[in-house]
Sequence to fold (299 residues):
Amino acid sequence: MAFDNFYYKAQRVYIAKRDVNGYAKGQLATPDNVDVSSNSVESSALIINTPVTFTPPAVTRAEYKDKSGGQLWQTIDGGVDDIATGTLVFSRESSALNTLVASLGTDTTQSTSFEQGGVDPTVQQLNNLWIGFERLVSDYDGTTFTTGRPSIEWYAGTLSLPTRPEANNNTGINPQSLTYVLTAQRFSKFLTGGLLSAITNAAYQSGSTLVHKMDVVYPNAAGIIVHTAVMDGTDTTFTLPYRPLSNSATTGAGNLIFKNGTATAVTTVNTTTGVVTLAAAGASGDIWEFIGPTNFVAI
Fold:
């Protein structure tokens, strides 16, 4: 059933590092070089609940004008000319986001009374990301009106923080916001490593896109889990960061579960413990991607 969407509230932002093959790798420091020689490695996307205003990247098209005799005869579309940067404006600073974008940790070894760390706008940039911007939408299908369903737009690209906020004595809560710049690019694979061309949608006929829109139609879901497990060839389970709403062990009935870019069934998904059990250990380096609806109840 087709729905008409009415966006009405900015909700949260999901950010995950992206390896060269398009897989989401959570917050791993080296997404292209994950060491599983001694154990499996798991990581989830950073979820930022700070109030945010998102301006999507704008696409401009080239135009060629046919003029003669003082007349404009026709205007010819010359195709995409440029993709401008987008912005994410946060009302509060997130140390977790600073750490992810600029690999800036904090030090407390000199004094437990102080957390010390550098914030350098000249280097504060992170390439190869998945950035998901979630809005709540209301739906109307001609009969039923439903509110509060998450709709997430995913971008592949780079985040940077070119300037630091000013400070003044204006009243209100933190009037000087932080503006991150999003430089987006077209992509042919989604977070799961699967090809977009495998999705039945006219937008993907060319095999790539600038935006992947994901509407969460699972009942009463507040958002999604985006979790990655790179297996060591021995483990047969991995654990999600929040309780999933769906216990579906196959892609399509509630969760998206992919192994090495291909939709693959697991044995069980436990909605209480968050443990996902595999049918077999598989090979060392297997990449499992789990995306599923959740209400963000901690394990």
Q: What stands out?
A: The longest strand covers residues 125-140. The mean pLDDT is 83. The first helix runs from residue 95 to 102. Helices lie at 95-102.
